[in-house]
Write a structure and sequence with these properties.
This protein has helices spanning 5-32, 36-62, 111-122, 141-150, 163-166, 175-188, 207-212, 266-271, 284-291, 303-306, 333-343, and strands spanning 76-81, 98-105, 128-134, 154-158, 193-197, 203-204, 218-220, 223-224, 231-236, 242-246, 262-265, 299-301, 311-312. It is an alpha/beta fold. The longest helix is centred in the N-terminal third of the chain and has 28 residues, at 5-32. It is globular and about 85 Å long. Bound molecules: uridine-5'-diphosphate-glucuronic acid and manganese (II) ion. Uridine-5'-diphosphate-glucuronic acid binds at residues 104-106, 135, 170, 172-175, 177, 199-201, 259, 281-282, 284.
């Protein structure tokens, strides 16, 4: 039998009231024996803490960091290669438009596993140029090594998130690095190409690449495992026109899409005067697409008229970054094993 919620509530409330009154008496006794000076100091400490707490909370809400930074972000190109040198997958077909796949990433225990899984999907696809954009000041050797080993055309760059955004209540993740990738594409990308944002915690069916490859302006499709509806998708009428979005978090967005749910033609993007991805958590996609001057009628709908899921926001369980004790293993394989794990950022 279920307990009567109201009785349970009352009981627990009574308990709390009792505790409080005992605490009050104790505090009151303490205050009584304090000197005048001690009471003033206590009042200053409590009052000061309250004022500090209120001001910081108000600042967090009111003084939001700007969506465009006031100073240029730090950006650096680590290494790049325009040649496909892998023995895996199809031969390169020069006539095909290139797909610039932009993957933001950051150091954590899962990073190398994520990039390996994603990169080995990309090996199956011709005419891919993989841009791994690290949220970091330094270029991680483990990423350079991985990219050289895979042999795909690639660019490895770094651009750390500016400090002001790290302090935000909702952090715009992966924005500084995606913006750096966009700049690289604007400066070095060929026009006969498309750009696609594929976060490192996603899983993709490689058939989607062939669908997006011929995008004229912008193409869209559903993304699985997003939000309250387990999917985010354009709503499409009988004529294949986008008429709205099916997404559990509308949030006043014109384009209610996930980062993995669209591709953009590079030539078209370069013609737009003010392309940007704003530092506003949850509104990066909408802000970017608006800056491209896209109308609903411009959107090409893929994945069989947005009826199929070909990419998923799978996500990965977060693991702690442990520091391991190795006293007993200074002379066996475990020493080198853990050294390698440290290089991959799996342990401290
Ligand atoms: C999604 C979007 O991709 C983010 O741009 C957005 O900030 C976020 O939703 C939001 O609306 O709050 P989400 O899946 O929530 O991101 O976050 P992650 O998967 O942790 O990060 C997105 C991408 O940015 C990943 O590729 C991740 O590796 C990278 N990232 C994450 C960084 O580069 N730096 C970080 O500190 C965290
Ligand atoms: Mn994610």
């Amino acid at each position: 039998m279920f307990e009567d919620a109201s009785t349970t509530g009352q009981n627990s409330k009574k308990g709390k009231v009792g505790d409080h009154s005992r605490l009050d008496v104790l505090l009151w006794d303490k205050i009584q024996v304090m000197s005048h000076r001690q009471r003033i100091i206590m009042a200053i400490i409590i009052g000061g803490s309250l004022i500090y707490f209120t001001i910081t909370q108000v600042l967090l809400v009111v003084a939001k960091a700007p969506s465009e930074p006031t100073q240029p972000e730090f950006r650096k190109i680590c290494t790049f290669s325009l040649e496909r040198e892998t023995i895996y997958g199809p031969a390169e077909e020069e006539s095909l438009p290139i797909i610039y796949v932009v993957t933001p990433t950051y150091k954590r225990p899962e990073m190398v596993a994520e990039l390996t899984r994603l990169g080995q999907s990309l090996l199956l696809v011709p005419r891919i140029h993989w841009i791994i954009a690290e949220d970091n000041r330094e270029c991680s050797p483990v990423i350079s090594n991985l990219l050289t080993r895979f042999g795909l055309p690639y660019t490895h760059l770094v651009s750390p998130m500016p400090e002001i955004y790290r302090k935000e209540r909702y952090i715009p993740r992966g924005v500084s690095n995606r913006r750096a990738a966009l700049q690289w594409i604007k400066e070095n990308g060929v026009n006969h190409a498309v750009v696609y944002f594929l976060d490192d915690d996603n899983a993709i069916d490689i058939r989607l690449f062939e669908e997006m490859r011929t995008t004229k302006k912008v193409s869209m499709w559903p993304v699985g495992l997003i939000g309250d509806y387990s999917v985010s998708s354009p709503v499409v009428d009988k004529m294949d026109n986008v008429v709205g979005f099916y997404d559990g978090w509308p949030a006043d967005r014109k384009f209610q899409v996930d980062m993995a749910g669209f591709a953009v033609n590079v030539g078209y993007m370069k013609k737009q005067p003010k392309v940007t991805m704003p530092y506003i958590a949850g509104h990066e996609e909408d802000g970017f697409l608006k800056s491209l001057n896209i109308r609903y009628e411009d959107v090409e709908v893929l994945a069989s008229g947005c009826t199929e899921v070909m990419v998923w926001h799978t996500r990965t369980t977060k693991n702690p970054t442990r520091s391991l004790r190795l006293d007993k293993h200074q002379h066996d394989n475990i020493k080198r094993l853990t050294d390698n794990m440290r290089q991959m950022g799996m342990i401290k």
